[in-house]
Design brief:
single chain, alpha+beta, 11 helices, 16 strands, globular
């Protein structure tokens, strides 16, 4: 086994941040939340230029503004609690999980990365450096561990010429939409604290904390038919990986979309051509080129999966402020690898589009009913050695998180929830509809992809961070 060099990151201190006192109560986790118990905590972070004040001031500033936002987002400062349910004879028949909103607190860790500069964290056009993973605590935690660990931990890492703020957040609390709403609300309050006579509030609508229920009433605890939930939790060891952050400019994405549209029109699929999106076109490129790099058998079936936000698809829809998980993975129909590669870019883009379009209210409710009848919490339930899975979203306002001294120069993630064929999408640093795609593959598959001319013709050069 290869021995990795010691991390240059050392912890200096940590502090607990709690919300103002409030009445204690519980929020039950839904089927969407519970399905993620075996998954890792979310690990996302932002790289900033150095603030114009001392580190001590920075930590106090972040602590004070975080305490302010926790007054509204108080479930983030809670813990999970597991209840056993018994029948009339006293036998345990199941377990449920809720958020115990008792103000137990979140943590801020101060760390220093000796000798590490911004250029070392985001070098252009190479693999993501291993040091980035050291910017995120709770390295091996899964969401189930939220009954003992904080649900949110922030690591503020000093660099030689900047600062990295790493957010580690229990995915059982909510999906990425609600997570980034929370972080942006925190950042808005932080900015206000540094403004003259700033109001210590956020202009954002408050989160909707009441969990969704299929019948439209108050959400009741979902009782899983297991006495011991710990027996369901997977903690697989990751295989060797390479990861690259790839940049797709707005112009490149428009070209991919137009190419797909022209191919569909040539094939007589006018409906598919009219509906094609930049997301479908990028998905087609990733799906086909990674499949080609893997060199599967011609008759091997392959699929493409992507997380879809359920809020606007439900009837009635959930508001954007809904605080919880409201996502499902949509999946293309299986197709033989040889057929996927032969049919081309437009066909694959349309296949992704059909999968997204089919995911409406009826499908969402049917999935909840099926999961409730047969719960599954495996962390790798979406992993397929011959498939791909896309998560996160370029719609998340990552670069809007300005804590008072300017917007981030880069966004990155830790080691959590990564496996061969996993893609996480980010908004492009320059905006304008550009996209960053963090791609994880085995070393063998990444090396093969690096020889794919079609793929790299669409990837845009990554300008150095300023």
């Amino acid at each position: 086994m290869t021995t990795l060099p010691p991390s240059p990151v050392r912890e200096v201190s940590r502090r607990t941040v709690a919300p103002p006192p409030r009445p204690r109560h519980r929020i039950p986790l839904t089927a969407w939340d519970l399905s993620l118990l075996s998954a890792d905590y979310i690990q996302k972070g932002l790289l900033f230029a150095p603030p114009p004040f001392s580190t001590a001031h920075l930590l106090d500033h972040l602590q004070a503004s975080l305490a302010d936002v926790l007054a509204t987002y108080y479930p983030v400062a809670g813990r999970f609690v597991i209840d056993q349910h018994r029948d009339d004879h006293g036998h345990v028949v199941g377990s449920s999980v809720s958020i115990d909103c008792a103000g137990q607190g979140v943590e801020i860790i101060h760390a220093v990365a000796d000798g590490v500069a911004i250029a070392d964290v985001v070098p252009p056009d190479v693999d993501v450096p291993r040091v980035v993973r050291s910017f995120f605590p709770l390295d091996h935690a899964v969401n189930y561990d939220g009954h003992e660990l904080p649900l949110f931990v922030v690591q503020v890492t000093e660099l030689a010429d900047g600062v990295f703020i790493g957010f580690v957040y229990n995915h059982g609390l909510s999906d990425g939409t609600a997570f980034w709403n929370f972080v942006n609300a925190w950042a808005e309050i932080a900015r206000a604290r540094l403004a003259p006579a700033g109001a210590l509030t956020t202009s954002r609508a408050p989160p909707l904390l009441e969990r969704w229920s299929p019948d439209g009433g108050a959400a009741a605890p979902v009782v899983l038919p297991y006495a011991d939930l710990s027996a369901l939790i997977d903690r697989p060891m990751p295989s060797p990986q390479r990861e690259r952050m790839l940049h797709f400019s707005a112009e490149s994405l428009v070209a991919l979309k137009e190419r797909a549209r022209h191919e569909l029109l040539a094939a007589g699929d006018t409906a598919g051509a009219a509906a094609v999106t930049r997301f479908q076109a990028l998905s087609s490129l990733l799906w086909r080129c990674v499949t080609r790099a893997r060199r599967p058998a011609p008759d091997q079936e392959v699929v493409f999966r992507a997380n879809a936000n359920n809020r606007g698809r439900l009837r009635p829809p959930l508001p954007v402020e809904y605080f919880g998980n409201a996502i499902n993975a949509v999946t293309t129909e299986p197709v033989r690898a040889s057929e996927l590669l032969a049919r081309g870019h437009g066909w694959a883009a349309a296949a992704v589009g059909r999968a997204v379009a089919a995911h409406g209210d009826e499908d969402i409710r049917a999935r909840v009913a099926a999961w409730t009848a047969k719960p599954l919490v495996s962390a790798f339930r979406l992993f397929d050695a011959n498939g791909m899975f896309v998560s996160s979203s370029p719609r998340f306002d990552m670069y809007g998180c300005d804590f008072g001294w300017g917007k981030a120069v880069a966004a990155r993630s830790g080691k959590a929830n990564k496996y061969d064929g996993k893609v996480s999408l980010f908004p492009g640093r320059e905006g304008g509809g550009s996209i960053g795609a963090e791609l994880v593959l085995t070393p063998e598959h990444m090396a093969a992809l690096e020889q794919d001319d079609e793929f790299w013709a669409a990837v845009s050069p990554d300008a150095p961070c300023q």
